[in-house]
Each structure stands twice: as C-alpha cells, then as structure tokens.
Give the backbone structure.
Amino acid sequence: MQIENHMPQAKDQVALKVLGPGCKRCALLESHVKQALERMGKALEVQKITDIPEILAYGVVQTPALVLGEEVLITGFVPSPRQIQEMLEGKI
C-alpha cells in the first residue's frame, strides 16, 4: 500500500527573497519580513540574495528589495512589519 503525502501547492509554496548586498538595511528588511510572517502565522523561508548580477536580473537598482515569487514588491526602503504584512496578505 502506497501512502502519498499531499502538500499544499498553492500560496504556501511561494518564495520570499530579500535582495541586497548585506547592509544593515537589508538585515532590517529581513527581520521585518520575518516578523510579518510570524504575525500572519506563516512559516515561509526567507531567502537572502546578495549576488549583484542576480539582484540586477530582477530589475532592482536600489536595495534592499523584497521579492515574492518573481514579483518585486519593495525596492529602496524598509517598511514596517505591519506594512509588509498588509502587502503580503492575500498573496501568501
């Protein structure tokens, strides 16, 4: 008998990425994203992208930036955890 593991495929599988060279504002954005996810009760991994060519591939020229899936949500500033939560609600 084979048992299949049915994992949710929809919004729970979306990748969140913080883009930036590793500066203080990048770390702050990552922290705010994690706080927003915690408030939402979501356990998503937040990936850090520091490779400049990869950052530029998203069309980002100002960091930090936040990417959901392949959509750039934030670039060049650090919103509060509440603002990030509002951006993410309904998307994840």
